[in-house]
Write a structure and sequence with these properties.
It comes from Paraprevotella clara. InterPro entries: Ig-like_fold, YhcR_N. This is Endonuclease YhcR N-terminal domain-containing protein. Keywords: Signal. There is one protein chain. By secondary structure, the protein is mainly β. It folds into 5 domains: 181 residues, Galactose-binding domain-like (Jelly Rolls, Sandwich); 94 residues, Immunoglobulins (Immunoglobulin-like); 112 residues, OB fold (Dihydrolipoamide Acetyltransferase, E2P) (Beta Barrel), CATH 2.40.50.200; 149 residues, Trefoil (Trefoil (Acidic Fibroblast Growth Factor, subunit A)); 48 residues, no CATH class. Helix content is 2%, strand content 43%. The strands form 8 sheets. Strands 30, 31, 32, 34, 35, 36, 37, 40, 41, 42, 43, 44 and 45 form a 13-stranded antiparallel beta sheet that branches. The longest helix has 7 residues. The chain is elongated. The protein starts with a strand and ends with a strand.
């Protein structure tokens, strides 16, 4: 239960998340921040200190370190406290009851309290703010307390601490209840129920706390929306003061889901409608010890903040306080090998940190057994880990590891390989590899991660012999002639295109409206100039960032194009009976099921016994 520490005896302790309004109540101040229209409600970036009138329904608000979000506002920075002050309002009727209500939560891992002060009266400390990870809408609680004041009172909201005291506010309201009137029936509940991302065919339950006040009858519970349900349909008047519901999310296909938890009856003037959200993706694992999540699963789940088993190959570690191309070290060498973290990947040869999960190694047996500084022989071994799937170094991570199995699990499936020969011309519809030499090694461009919509093309090392290479099929790009130039599609069937001012690639499974036409010219020396027609930028390999980008001027090395020689193959596979079980894999060798049904668009490897074929869905 939310608690308040009040320094004034006349301030009444109360907690209301969502409430109906009594007819006798007069709203004397209301602000829902609907005029705050920044595009990111979880990271407001438009500062309002110079004047809040453009962002509020009524004039006279002021703030210090205030930022407009999308229908909400944040106050405070990482090392600076925040302040919000209301316009002057009349709180002078001694016979009336004035109530302040507002929704609030804390920034992730920041202080779980804020202060409320009327004029120069002693401040009230509001505690038990949720400070979990974004989305913050699901963390919002609505608090309520009685206040008194003068004819020109102002209310101040402020950080309880100067550093890491950031807080969000929304739906601020002050009401006046005349003497002798009875407050209307009301219900408290969370402002939203957010399930995050889970796997297709799995289910996740969330408990929802309900608290009713001044009810005249039983409450009715209903859930609208595909894949959401609630076993409770009625809460008696007597039980409603402190009740708990369990909402279930059980998706059977991939996609984004929305629904509504509706609470009605009990004398409420209006039903309470709580939005429900969830996302379902096709996963390989189940997060159990027997069937752990793969690295691809972890990247798709995007830090669900749940405990689960995850498996991967130990490929390196991170140095410093942030992760990037230079701080992600692949290997077990160096003077500064970390003992507190390691990188795991789905491919034992992975060299792209965006395709890895960073594992926090807590002090104790886990760190002693797994860290690469003391155990360099662990490099390349498969490890299964039980921990909390949450952000670490700002990327996908596993923290608070409590159990592990080292060197366990099945060997990875064989990866489809393709042979390519250096091209001097473009043949429409063929697959190509982008190859570059930095003077010491040859590198081949890799596809942008299947879970990402944009990025640079990172590379893997290859060997060139007689102007031919052999590389994973997932490193191929299909070039097709169209009006005005060519389209380029990656191994997942996604179009490469450009938008905005960035020098990175965007990818889309559907043909974009613009920015997807490329001009390609191969010079006599075999170097290819691949130019985005709309942006007038061309593909270059940056030796600084060790990746391919698209730049407006000369900043790197041009690639050579190598064209596919023949059909793809999977090594080590022979003929088998046609009635053998079907297995479906991504081009990276990750098993995703026994059928193409329910999978996202792309190219898959279908294996039946010893027969392997590539299928575009």
């Amino acid at each position: 239960m939310t608690s308040f520490t009040s320094l004034k005896s006349w301030m009444l302790l109360a907690l209301l998340f969502v409430a109906g309004q009594a007819a006798a109540q007069q709203v004397i101040l209301s602000e829902d921040f609907s005029k705050c229209t920044s595009k990111d409600p979880d990271n407001p970036g438009t500062k309002m200190d110079d004047g809040m009138d453009p962002y509020t329904l009524t004039t006279g608000w002021s703030c210090v370190n205030g930022y407009a979000g999308e229908g909400n506002a944040k106050f405070g920075a990482s090392k600076k406290g925040g302040i919000l002050v209301t316009p002057s309002i009349d709180l002078s009727d001694a016979s009336a009851t004035y109530t302040l209500k507002f929704k609030a939560c804390a920034w992730s891992k920041d202080a779980t309290s804020l202060k409320v002060q009327v004029d120069e009266q002693e401040a009230v400390e509001i505690t038990d703010l949720e400070n979990g990870p974004a989305p913050y809408a699901a963390n919002m609680k609505e608090f309520s307390l009685e206040i008194k004041g003068t004819a020109t009172s102002k209310i101040t909201f402020s950080s309880s601490v100067e550093s890491k005291g950031r807080f969000f506010l929304d739906d601020i309201e002050v009401t006046k209840l005349a003497a002798g009137e009875t407050p209307d029936a009301s219900v408290s509940a969370p402002g939203a129920v957010a399930f995050g991302t889970i796997g297709v065919g799995t289910e996740l339950a969330q408990k929802v706390a309900i608290s009713g006040s001044n009810l005249t009858g039983d409450l009715t519970i209903a859930v609208e929306g595909k894949a959401f349900s609630c076993a409770t349909t009625t809460i008696s008047k007597d039980d409603a003061a402190n009740a708990e519901l369990e909402v279930l999310f059980a998706p059977v296909s991939s996609g984004d889901y929305t629904g509504t938890l509706i609470i009605s009856g009990g004398g409420l003037k209006e039903s309470v409608a709580i939005p429900i959200t969830g996302r379902a993706v096709q996963l390989t694992g189940k997060g159990t010890k027997e069937v752990p999540y793969t690295i691809s699963d972890a990247l798709l789940l995007e830090n669900p903040n749940r405990e689960a088993w995850v498996k991967g190959y130990i490929v390196g570690y991170v140095i410093g306080q942030s992760i990037n191309e230079k701080s992600a070290i692949f290997g077990a060498d160096g003077e500064d090998v970390s003992v507190s973290n390691m990188l795991i990947a789905g491919d034992v040869n992975e060299k792209d940190y965006t395709q890895c999960v960073v594992v926090q190694l807590p002090q104790g047996d886990v760190r002693t057994a797994l860290n690469l500084k003391d155990n360099p022989e662990n490099l390349g071994k498969q490890v299964n880990l039980l921990g909390i799937m949450e952000a670490y170094f700002g990327v996908c991570g596993v923290k608070n590891v409590s159990d592990y199995v080292l060197g366990d699990g099945e060997s990875p499936e064989p990866v489809p390989m393709v042979s390519f020969a250096k091209a001097t011309t473009i043949t429409s519809g063929k697959r190509y590899a982008l190859v570059v030499s930095d003077g010491e090694k040859y590198h081949v461009a890799q596809n942008i991660a299947e879970s990402s919509s944009h990025g640079y093309l990172y590379v893997g090392d290859i060997t060139v012999s007689n102007d031919e290479i052999s590389t994973e099929e997932s490193n191929s790009f299909t070039i097709t002639a169209v009006d005005g130039g060519y389209t380029i599609q990656d191994s997942y069937g996604r179009y490469l295109y450009m938008t905005g001012t960035f020098n990175s690639f965007n990818v889309s499974s559907e043909q974009p409206e613009s920015g997807y036409i490329w001009n390609i010219n191969i010079a006599a020396d075999g170097l290819a100039t691949i130019t985005n027609v709309e942006m007038n930028k061309w593909v270059q390999y940056s030796t600084q960032y060790t990746s391919f980008g698209v730049y407006p001027d000369e900043q790197g090395l041009l690639p050579s194009l190598y064209m596919e020689k023949g059909s793809s193959s999977v090594t080590g596979v022979g003929a088998d009976a046609s009635n053998a079980p079907v297995e479906v894999y991504t081009l990276g060798g990750v098993k995703v099921g026994s059928s193409l049904n329910g999978l996202q668009k792309g190219i898959y490897i279908v294996k039946q016994g010893g027969t392997v074929k590539k299928v575009m869905k």
